[in-house]
Amino acid sequence: MVKAIWAVACAIPMLLVVPITLASPAFAADAAGIAGVPRTVPGVMDNSAPVRRPASSSPRVQNDMSYKLGPEDQLRISVWDNKELTLDLVVRPDGKISMPLIQDIPAEGLTAAQLADEIQRRLAAYIVNPEVSVIVLQVNAPKYYLIGYVTKPGTYPLRGDTSLLQALALAGGFTQFASPKNIKLIRAAGGTQEVRVINYYDIIEDGGRGNYLLKPGDTIVVP
Q1: Across the chain, where does the E strand assignment appear?
Q2: Which terminus of the chain has fewer Cβ atoms in its 10 Å neighbourhood, N or C?
């Protein structure tokens, strides 16, 4: 009789330990997995799951999202969670870049976002749901400079033929205090500087006379 009572008394703590242990967080997670909640398998990544993209901020990034890429531009191609396909590249003189798996890709004339979309489309044949970003590290196109009373003064890439009026349009036009009658175009010529004074209104009224095509290194001053 005493032995029976002792056996029952020893069994009671064991019964109490089981529900308490299962209630712990680690076991609760396992139980949830059994109930249908997906569990992570070490070493396997599901690219279809939502992931946080890497930060793309950089002091050298070009803020103009409409900028068209061209030869000699330096790019950073980032493929999320793939170090082999995360590269710093330079656009070749033929306007293309080269990457593993997808070989040559035309880049000239595309924006950074458009190039990222094209790379992503091509990589989809090899990688499940690739996440691609393209950052312009450095613009190496010929440049012209626009200073003075315009909305967006600064340095601009010279891609193809660009006229004075087009340059002013890209800069957002004149500000309230601008003097459109006294625009100056400063151009280096034979070791000296040539200064042309241009009246904006004369260009408009005279059928475009004075609307010069810009050359690399030109400076437009809007007083």
Answers
A1: 74-79, 87-90, 96-99, 103-106, 132-138, 143-148, 154-157, 183-189, 192-198, 219-222
A2: N
CA distance 117 to 130: 10
Residue found by looking up tokens 């992570």 in the block: 40
143-222 folds as Outer membrane lipoprotein wza fold like (3.10.560)
**What's domain 74-138's superfamily in CATH?**
wza like domain (3.30.1950.10)
> Considering only CA atoms, which of 219, 106, 128, 135 is closest in space to residue 171?
219
The length of the chain is 223
pTM of the model: 0.51
Q: Is the pLDDT of residue 34 over 50?
A: no
Q: What is the pLDDT of residue 115?
A: 96
Contact indicator for 54, 78 with CB cutoff of 8 Å? yes
